[in-house]
Amino acid sequence: MTRTDWYLRRALAMTPREIVWRVGRAGRDLVRADRVAGWARDRGPDAGVQDWDGVLQRFRAGDGRPVLLDRVRAERIGAQCPDGVAAVVDRADRILAGEVRYFGYPVAHLGSPIDWSLDPLTGRRWPAIAATRIDHRTASADPKWIWELNRLQHVPWLAQAWLFTGDERYAEAAFAHLDSWIEQNPVGVGIAWRGAFESGLRAVSVAVALQGLRDCKALSPARFRRVVEMLDTSARYCWRGRSRFTSANNHVIGELTGVVCVTALLPELRAADTLCERAIHTLSVEADLQILPDGMGAEQSVCYHIFTAEALTLVAAVTALRRRPVPAPITAAIDRSAQFLAAVVGAGDPQPRYGDDDGSFVLRLGAESERTVRDHLGIVAAVTGSPEARWAGRATLSSAWLGAALADSDAQARVAGRRPPAGHSAPGFYARDGGLVVLRAGARRVTMDVGPLGYLTTAAHGHADALAVTLASGGRELIGDPGTGSYYGDPAQRSAHRGTAAHPTVCVDDSDQSVMGGAFLWTRHARVTVHAVDLGRGIVDAEHDGYRRLDDSVRHRRWLVAPGDGGTIAVVDLIRGRARHRVRVGWPLHPSLAATVTGCGHTAARGAVPVLQVEYAATAPFTTQQLCGDDRSRLGWWSDRLESWTPSWLVGVECAARLPVAVLTLLRPLGDTAARPVTAARIEWSDSGSLVASWSESGFGHRVTVDCVRGGAVVAERIGG
Asked: What is the pLDDT of residues 252-289, one digit of tens each?
């Protein structure tokens, strides 16, 4: 796809008002390519500060500002979290050795001094030109890697290592990195300034790390001034260049969190209080948009849900430490998000997976390589005291720092507020706004996606996975979302992992349900209609219109029957049309499982132990399908982290027939290895036009009758003995 094609498709996703705004901004960029540097000059070089020595003294004392990283607090946390502290010191030691690793890429070795524009894995040096003139989409190297380096999220590790050990090498390295970064990255020049989002996340890390190093001898007034002026420019860039319209997803949250952290920790900056309040007000509006009323993230991505909620949680903590009331929309968004996430993971279920995942952190205090739902809930619990977050969360170094800061200041009460009773209770729940159904029976969790493709018209981080069904049992995934694969590193893998065929749903004629317009753009969205959700009986009935764009106007409707007694799960797919089509029902298995063909289905085993039986039937001739790590189609891969993928089995069934066709899939977790298998699976049309699925199991016959007209009209019964 050419650059012109991308811009055309992107414009089609915009409103006329947005197009006018973007054209105007592009015109201004042509006239003034150093837009970010211009903003700095407009305000003058002194950031509104006249007495730098006095400001540094107040900064060292922590007067008039929140204090997050603190030497006295470090001693207490060191005794409480010895493993977390050891891990951070180890990370800091690797930084001293010049070793970094981002995403699934190999370890990279940085030189000394660091070349902040060089990607050592590829040898690509990003140009030292106005950031607005760098086209990162067509570059020969992955911009995510160089952005990750330039976020400076390792500097808080160095600051903490100094606080925990007193070893001056860590502080000296932190300041050496800041000095060289500022020298090599003039405001508005280079890939590091390409976008306010990167500036926002960098500002959060640098502001917090600088506070942790505030009583270090190496922090001279001149050095302090250089860093603060960079932060001041970054905060104003984040405000003036914040993401808007169809770009206002998690990016605007990260940008404005940067504004809040800089202006709160450095209140002496010119107009700091006004800028901070504007950012908090805008975040209050965005909190209601990006955390839906049912607590699910609007972007249809677990990763970006956590990122957004964690940014809001950090803003809430910083605001409370300023002795200001936290706006109700922010606390409410944090609370309902925590209720939703706690309900999805429960007491022992695995991390949910759907949508994109790049492993982004708002602030990296602990050494963990990813922020899990339970880690995030531990942070929420420390900041708000949420009972749901306390129940499902896990304490980390990040939660220890934030919790200690709030406790020392007696500020947690300013964050916590009235929370409504949890809306998601066992054994299952239906998040109507986000479109996720969770059904539980004992140690089994089944989910079905009946939500939109993603957020806003671009749906940038959504996947074409409408009506996808996942299955976990005994705290481990069996059938799930195969992850993200890639962003920029491997475009083919990016497309495959976003596409329908990779997900546990139905794919027609090898086409995606929704139409891709670019790596972060969907030009046509499949829309789901929910006919019924019956949590008591474990029944979901929904369909989507994604294949109506085909010449034959195909529709896919799926019934999920997951009884509360923990028995076999029945999935009935009806694909309606008039012509001949190829229909595939796919089930991506976790990479810890090995699949073998057994009869009219598959058995998945973990090691030598069978853990799942999958059995099929259809109203037309079918063949079982299975592949693992296929390089041609890019299917049969599982991605636990960005730019990394592992071979995994994708099993299922294929029918090539004239529509309509109905397919039955029976999913039976084998918790009891002595259990008798499912046999004699059938699905057929009744005289009344209903679908009748039947099978035998443990000496009993089972039958599910589906009325294809009336929503949720499903009868499940056991017959004989």
From this structure: 999 999 999 999 999 999 989 999 999 999 999 999 99
Specify if 684 maps to a domain: no
Q: What percent of the chain has pLDDT over 90?
A: 85
To the nearest 10°, the Cα dihedral for 359, 281, 404, 82?
10
Claim to verify: residue 660 and residue 514 sit in the same structural domain: yes
Whether residues 351 and 452 share a domain: the answer is no
Question: Is the per-residue pLDDT at 32 higher than 80?
Answer: no
- Hey, which residues does 99 pair with through a beta bridge? 109
- Clarify whether residues 226 and 353 are in a common domain: no
The angle, 0 to 180 degrees and rounded to 10, between the axes of the packed helices 328-345 and 302-321 is 140
d(CA 236, CA 226): 16
- 455 with 418, same domain: the answer is no
Same structural domain, 527 and 618: yes
Task: Convert the pLDDT of each residue in 392-421 to its tens digit.
Answer: 999 999 999 999 999 988 776 567 655 554
Q: Report the candidate in 662, 667, 664, 665 with the shortest Cα–Cα distance to residue 677.
A: 667
Structure confidence by residue, pLDDT tens digits, 64-116: 999 999 999 999 999 999 999 999 999 999 999 999 999 999 999 999 999 99
Cβ distance 458 to 246 under 8 Å?
Answer: yes
Q: Is there a domain that residue 704 lies in?
A: no
Q: Are residues 158 and 181 in the same domain?
A: yes
In total, the chain counts a number of residues equal to 721
Asked if residue 707 belongs to a domain, the reply is no
CA distance 656 to 575: 12
Q: Which domain holds residue 105?
A: 34-285
Structure tokens at 224: 């302090």
Last residue of a domain, one of 425, 454, 483: 425
CATH number at residue 151: 1.50.10.100
Q: How many domains does the chain have?
A: 4
Strands laid side by side in the 661-669 sheet = 528-534, 539-544, 555-561, 569-576, 661-669, 609-618, 601-606, 594-598
* CA dist., res. 616 & res. 506, Å (int): 14
Q: Of the ranges 2-16, 167-181, 674-688, which one carries the lowest mean pLDDT score? A: 2-16
63 Cβ contact list (under 8 Å, min separation 6) = none
Residue 37 neighbours by CB under 8 Å, 6+ apart: 186, 187, 188, 189
Residue 361: pLDDT above 70? yes
Examine the domain organization and report whether 586 and 449 are in the same domain. yes
Taking 60 as the threshold, does the pLDDT of residue 656 lie above it? yes
Q: Is residue 492 part of a domain?
A: yes
**pTM score over 0.90:** yes
Position 70, amino acid: D
Q: Which of 220, 255, 285 is the last residue of a domain?
A: 285
